């Protein structure tokens, strides 16, 4: 698994270079290792190489891994589309949820978060591409959703998340990330997290202010399942 260690180092080097190019300190950008579809051994190898935070998109798959890796104190982020009937499992087993895009989902996560646990860290997912098929709240509806989430005592609203439409054009990548930052700056609620940037576009995201990049294939290799 030395290849995994060197892949992880290469991603850290990309983050550091992009941060420096943007006049930012490299430690202002957190790396979330997206381990969906990869096995427990790969996650253990990444953890042994120093990676602490992991992102998962499928609830059933994630619960198996979280249980099997309970001996390591990892931090688990749920980044996939969230259905109502999965909110309890997610609220109980994850540390973060990046994909809150409706008030009903936020309310259910809040109600299911166990009192002994610290509040669940959440990001509101925003549709920055304007494509109707994409998940995320529209920019127009964002302020109302942010205010609703901020009221919920068992949630800790941390920031905004986006999955832009894939684009080979650097300008289009930048424009979508910039929109998320501008939306964050326009809210009257303090938010410390901008979750944006993946294997193919993390440089653009970091240039536009990402504080957390979600990176899968650049660490673990190609996925069998396309998503
Ligand atoms: C799969 C996934 C990623 C990681 O994508 P890569 O291109 O493999 O880096 C990031 N964010 C979300 C929401 C994902 O579903």
Question: How do you describe this structure in short?
Answer:
The chain has 227 residues and is an alpha/beta fold. It has a single domain (2-220), classed as Alanine racemase (TIM Barrel), CATH 3.20.20. It is built from 9 helices and 8 strands.
Features of the shown structure:
227 residues, alpha/beta, TIM Barrel, eight-stranded parallel beta sheet, 9 helices, 8 strands, 40% helix, binds pyridoxal-5'-phosphate, pyridoxal phosphate, PLP-binding_barrel, Pyridoxal phosphate homeostasis protein, PyrdxlP_homeostasis, Ala_racemase_N
Q: What's the total count of β strands?
A: 8
The CATH architecture classification is Alpha-Beta Barrel
Beta-strand percentage range: 15-25%
CATH topology: TIM Barrel
**Overall 3D geometry?**
globular
The CATH C-level class name = Alpha Beta
Strand order of the largest sheet: 7-6-5-4-3-2-1-8
When the domains are counted, the total is: 1
**Structure classification:** alpha/beta
N/C terminus separation:
25 Å
Q: Count of DSSP helices?
A: 9
> What's the SSE pattern?
HEHEHEHEHEHEHEHEH
Helix content: 40-55%
Q: Report the CATH superfamily.
A: Alanine racemase
Question: Unreliable runs, pLDDT <50, ≥5 residues?
Answer: none
- Mean of the pLDDT scores? 96
Protein name: Pyridoxal phosphate homeostasis protein
Pfam families: Ala_racemase_N (PF01168)
Modified residues (N6-(pyridoxal phosphate)lysine): 36
Function: Pyridoxal 5'-phosphate (PLP)-binding protein, which is involved in PLP homeostasis.
């Amino acid at each position: 698994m030395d290849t995994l260690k060197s892949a992880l180092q290469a991603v850290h080097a990309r983050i550091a270079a992009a941060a420096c190019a943007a006049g930012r300190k490299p430690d202002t950008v957190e790396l979330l290792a997206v381990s969906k579809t990869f096995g427990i051994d790969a996650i253990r190898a990444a953890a042994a190489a120093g990676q602490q935070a992991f992102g998962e998109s499928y609830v059933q798959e994630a619960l198996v891994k979280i249980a099997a890796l309970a001996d390591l104190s990892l931090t688990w982020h749920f980044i996939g589309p969230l259905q109502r009937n999965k909110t309890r499992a997610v609220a109980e087993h994850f540390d973060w949820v990046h994909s809150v895009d409706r008030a009903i989902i936020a309310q259910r996560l809040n109600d299911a978060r166990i009192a002994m646990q610290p509040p669940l860290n959440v990001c509101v997912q925003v549709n920055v591409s304007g494509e109707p098929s994409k998940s995320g709240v529209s920019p127009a509806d964002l302020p109302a959703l942010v205010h609703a989430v901020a009221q919920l005592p068992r949630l800790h609203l941390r920031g905004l998340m986006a999955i832009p439409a894939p684009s080979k054009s650097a300008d289009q990548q930048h424009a979508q990330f910039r929109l998320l930052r501008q939306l964050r700056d326009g809210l009257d609620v303090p938010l410390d997290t901008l979750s944006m940037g993946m294997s193919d576009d993390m440089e653009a995201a970091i240039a536009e202010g990402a504080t957390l990049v979600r990176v899968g294939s650049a660490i673990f290799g190609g996925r069998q399942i396309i998503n």
